[in-house]
Amino acid sequence: MPNPALDAKVRALQKDYLSVEDFKELIEKETVHEVFSFLKDNTHYGVYFSGVQEEDINRTSLENTLEKIIETDTDKLLYFVLGADRNFLRLVLQGIHLNSFVILLRGLLKNRDLTQIVENLPVESMRSKFDFNQAVAASDWKHFKDSIKDPAYKRAVDGYEELTLSNLFEVEKTLQRVYYDQLVRYLKKINSGENAELVRLIRKQIDIENLIWIYRAKKFYDLRPEEILSFIYLGGKFLSPDRLRDLAMTESLEEFLDEVGQYQDYRFLFDTDSKLSIERRYKRYMHEQFRRLLYFSGGLTLAYSYLELLKDEISDLISIIEAKRYRLDSKEIDRFLIRQV
Amino acid sequence: MAIEKLNLVNVVGKNPDIDRFQKVIYLFNDLELIDAYADIDEGRFTIPVSEENIDEIMQMARISRKSKKTDPKIGELKEKLLAVYKDLKVDKDLLKDTVASKEEILKETEDFIDYLDRESGKLQFSKESLEKTKQSINYYSYLSGIDIPVERIKDLKFFKVQIGSLTPDNARRLKLIYPSIPSVIFELESKRSSEKVFMVLTLLEVDRETERVLKALDFMPLEGEDPSFIGTPDHILGLLHEKEAALTKQIEGQQSEFNGLLERNRKKAELLYNELLFMESSVYIEDMMAFSDKNFYFSAWVPEKRSEELKNLLGDGYTVIFEKPLREYDPPTKLKNNWIFRPFEQLVLMYGIPNYYELDPTPFLSITYIFCFGYMFGDVGQGIVPLLAGLFAEKKGIKLGGVFARISIASIIFGFLYGSVFGIETILPALWLRPMDDTNTLLLTAVVCGVVMLLVAYIYGLINKRREHEEREEYFGKNGLSGLIIYVSILVLVLMLYHFIPFDQLFEDVIIVLIVICTLLVFLAVPLMNVIHKRKFTYDVDGQYYVSSFFEVFEMYLSMLSNTISFIRVGAFALTHVGMFMAFQTIADMVGGGIDGIIVLIIGNIFIIGLEGLIDYIQCLRLEFYELFGKYYTGNGREFVTIEKGIK
Q1: Structural domain boundaries in chain B
Q2: Is B34 helix (H, G, I), strand (E, B) or coil?
Q3: Any chain B CB within 8 A of the CB of A223?
Q4: Is the domain covering B148-231 a CATH 3.40.50.150 domain?
Q5: What is the predicted ipTM?
Q6: What is the pLDDT at residue B86?
Q7: What is the per-residue pLDDT across B348-391, written as a single tens digit (0 to 9) for each?
Q8: To probe the interface with A, which of B167, B173, B214 has the most A CB atoms within 10 Å?
Q9: Which of residues 161-190 of A touch B (CB under 8 A)?
Q10: What is the pTM of this model?
């Protein structure tokens, strides 16, 4: 069903996206402070920085303020949707909170002050499936686990009696797997005509995530096929579970890349001629796809595309801030950005 | 039927008496606490300078706060008591004669809870056993039908057997991986749709590989396996079911025994619970007090009529001083209305609570609200239904129920005046008129009643402005004396115009002159006040003042007209009420009458009571808030917060 109220809201928000010219100017800035001043004085991000003084700003606080905007906007859009669409957007919000939870999880393992970490994380929404106050107050893994309110996530980590450096990766992957399993279930519920393009794209995204996972597991972690397959995401577009098994079972990385080469849609990922990293190629591809959807869609597809592109924009801003921090040459910054400037 | 008169009470006592003092204050409750430390700091805490008070006064120079936090033990003990006794009640009377110290109470409560724990030990043990038995039944039911003793399965030398569950998604992953792991896996029929249950048979030599995969898939071993059980699964299940039945019976007996024990100790539990509540509250009271080495200082608002009672309750050993409230102390407002008007207080509070010096609008609002609603919704039958519902709701503690009950009585009275029962006008004779037969009288009477209400509102306004010392508004305000004279004069002119009173040219001229003079007074209110206060005529007056004053005068005339005409709605809704029923009556005729017609009329009545009742309720609220409150009420007071409310 058309949702003109949601469309109008997203179109209004979309006007605030930064232009290519804005990005060009930002890239030319010399310091983090200059980037902050530009954002504060010339863009809609100024609203979020209204109470922040230039001398107080640092890379972390700037990045975290930006990341919180995605949570705020998702929260805002929730008021404009109902039924399955609403549940889907709530899941998106859940994904944001899951990331915050994982960051806290790492902090817990390193015995860091969680109250300080949480201040800079998007954890404000009332709809969270994680009780962040409880998580921050937890002194050990057992109590930390209790802060999970969602039974599916709770079930996933229940079997882990301890959190150690050696199982941290597995715990994170387990939580992310739960998120993707839920995502696939929700995709089935929104898979009507108007959202068909969105569902198709997210399913392709799942394929890509799986390919990158298998690639890394083979290249860097040297995992056995059974372990690789334990953490694959089900519900991709072209890669059926059996096909994924075949890919995981390939004898060598070369054989795996040869197999992937048969898929026209995903061949670009492992293009050895490109200067960009796999991650960057993946992000750019998705960015272009969501840009297309943003202009030719409405309703939930439009809202989701808006949020994904906002995520990309903020990710690019953070990349620029990082580049300024490490005094990277302006000409080099482009290859660290999702958008092409 | 007014705002309760208050006194400011200052108390100084000796520190050793603090526990007793706090208990008296807590039980008295009808006090709004004032921060004594801030009061002393700002020089508002006064005690008479006399020889016997000299020590207390000297010590005031060395006061401090004693802001301690609530002892977490109190909360824990309270929770534990509530976990056992779910329905403990707040009953302050229980505390009247108790003298135990806080430490003694805590010790006694701990001992009492320990005693209950010990007594419930057997019961808890039986419940845990039952829970374990149920888990075992669940576990062995998955093996049901296998004709091999379980000890033989457990004693396998080269194989390990596990039963556990996976989420459906991870079960799909397991099926994908299955060909490449060195285990035999059977899917068992699951009793829970959210999980899939598997039996995994693994060669011990390669157990680690399977374990890693199962761990990665969040395999959750099923609880309930007990190595002491021997025999076939069905044999074990039989024994377990017998044990389950025996335990259930045993628990019933133990539970009833324990319930008896709880009942026998209920009074003690209630006393301790109330003591704990008091201990929690005493922190709030203590936070609002100030302390010196020897004395404590306490300050609060107390109803004037209960001041002596408080003094008597405290008894000797305290310096107690009562003071009349000064305007700069910003006294709170405690509404005091009889049972008829009390439910309407919440409507007043929706707008704002009157300040201490204002007239309480509740009685006037109640009378006019009841009248207007009855006028609009006059029907004996349709009044009885919300009356019963309102009385029921009031009994259940829903405050709005009281409002509904009272306004419904007015509906019934007007129902008799209109001769209407459930919309039918053929059963009762109309004691006054039938709305549809005499619309002019109905509408005109509504406006006349509105005019009377507005005149009362003007008078209320005048009294409030006098009390607030707002001279300009009182004499020259659009809702003050000048406004009232203009309004009355216009009314007289209208009455003369329509020959309700005999026409007299001289009288008319006098009235017109009066209107012009009063209009000028409103227009020049500020400069005139300057003259009265012997300031320059143009002091604080510029061109902008005259422009805004002009529009204010214009708005005054407009609101006089609109406020008066607005009351026509009271009559109009009475007509709507009848009209709406006529519509349903027509539908009832169209469906051919009989049972169908009766059903239509019943639905119609439900619809009218629900929808129109709500509309009339809102319309009355609008008349009160907009037409009337705007004339006389500011509602900028603050509520008197008793100790109980303050703690919440």
Answers
A1: 2-66+291-331, 148-231
A2: strand
A3: no
A4: no
A5: 0.88
A6: 85
A7: 999 999 999 999 999 999 999 999 999 999 999 999 999 999 99
A8: B173
A9: 170, 174, 177, 181
A10: 0.63
